[in-house]
Amino acid sequence: MVAQFSKIRYAYWIGYQLSIEDFMSFVAGLPPAIATRNFSEQENITATYGDYFYAYIKWRDTLPKEQWKHSLRALYRHLPDGQMATHVVFFTRYVKHKGPQQVEDPADPDYSVIHEELAEDAEKLKRFVELAREYGGEPNINKFEFTFKKELHPTTDWRIVRIPLFAFAVNTYSLFIPVLI
């Protein structure tokens, strides 16, 4: 059986980034029942930021549906040559990728949509921070920085891997994806 993949499409994901250190501090305050280990006892937390990201994904996946919609999809990146990522990115919206002119040419109609923080972005971040605080996390809203990244289009987000007699759906943004920051 040969796997068939549709054409991979991209989008500019727009949202906020948080330093790895601030992200780990935030996740360490979330309910310990969802954590893979007790993060406060880690001897070398800089070597385990992937564990914190996994704990965030687990926390997000356990939220009730009405609260889950206020949580933000997150992505952290592996860098080449074993370098550590510097930020975790939380996305609020996306714009379909049409070409590099969207982020390079100020005359392009999408340029300002991508580069400017909208009121809806700030509102989503505010609701997300309030939700995290309800669960014991302490994210500092002033440490989030507005950003955008070129990533897979949301319709390309889910992959189906077929093995004889089995089918697995894999959410690529819940895994650790090797992409450049």
* Pattern of helices and strands: EHHHEEHHHEEE
Low-confidence stretches: 42-47, 158-181
What gross morphology would you assign?
globular
Record the strand order, biggest sheet: 2-3-1-4
Spatial extent as radius of gyration:
17 Å
Number of strands: 6
Instruction: Outline the biggest β-sheet.
Output: 4 strands, antiparallel
Instruction: Tell me roughly what share of residues is in helical segments.
Output: 25-40%
Strand content: 15-25%
The average pLDDT score comes to 76
Structural class: alpha+beta
Tell me the number of helical segments per DSSP (H or I, 4 or more residues long): 6
The end-to-end span amounts to: 35 Å
